[in-house]
Amino acid sequence: VRVAYQGVRQEVSSRWDKVASGEEFERLEYDPQERHLAYGSYTVAEPATGIDRLAATLSLHRQIEGQARLKVDADPATDLSRTEDTVSTVGGSLVGESHVAARHALTYGVDAYADSVASETILPTARAWGRYPDGSAAFDISAFAQDEVALSAAVGLSLGANATYYSIASDLSLEDPTFGLLEKDGIAVTGTVALAVEVVEGVKFHGAVGTGFRAPTIDDLAGVQVTNQGIQAPSPDVDPERSLNLEVGVKLHRPRFGGSIAAFNTFLTDQMVSHEVSEVYGENLPAFARNIQAAHPDLDVNVLDNLDKMVMRGLEADVYVSPAPSLTVYGVGTL
Q1: Distance, CA of 217 to CA of 8 (rounded, Å)
Q2: pLDDT (tens digit, 9 = 90+) per residue, 61-75?
Q3: Measured between alpha carbons, how far is 248 from 206 in angstroms, rounded to an integer?
Q4: Strand residue runs (E) in 130-256
């Protein structure tokens, strides 16, 4: 049995990159910023025939953030904006491990997380929308399994699968009655196959193919926040991202030196990217976008939109050298 708590609190953290120029904000502060994580886990060996290990975990994560904004040349008495947001996440997981016929190492389980948001604007006018619509909620649950197969002393095969259900609810009618209650949900199934072959001692070739999935979050769909590109507005029309990932490479391990190099190719479908709001909605801007533009006339207002297709490819490499037992030098690079 293990029980733990981690907490951190930071007061008056300023976005100096936005304040120092003197062109956008006179004040842009986060106060407070709090992170609290409490969790408990219970692990038991051989709870039943065929199960070598079973671990259960419960957690509570709470994030509290206040933000104060005052634009340049604004009146602090009437124009100071302050929001307060609290995001609470309750999570749980159950993970099992089994070894079958000496060649299979199985890991399997289920995990679930539920988010709830309390958000409000305190100044200049109180309302039930701070960074997010108050009462926003999200839930996801996943079932997964992985099999590490030793085909021989030099060849290993890894098979993995994951099925996820997600749902998000956020009341955008608090700002724009046109959208009403935003509700999104979906199911995704992903998988991975990887093969590793040690051709000689210390030299291993590997390759993998897998699919990926990223559902939009409350931040993506309903959040309002200052970014380096301007103001990120709610994006209720954005869809999930999906990907196909390919990788091949080689690893070298010697007592005094070693490293690896791998080539990857990722095919993305519906990648979420930020665009200026008029590029997505044209002249028919939603009310929430018009309100944000009116409040920040000197900043770009952006929303997320989906690209049809995108391809990313490159090389990753790392190397280490140990000229002495007490000294190791590392290097990494990406192209």
Answers
A1: 24
A2: 999 999 999 989 899
A3: 6
A4: 137-150, 155-171, 181-200, 203-214, 225-227, 230-232, 241-253
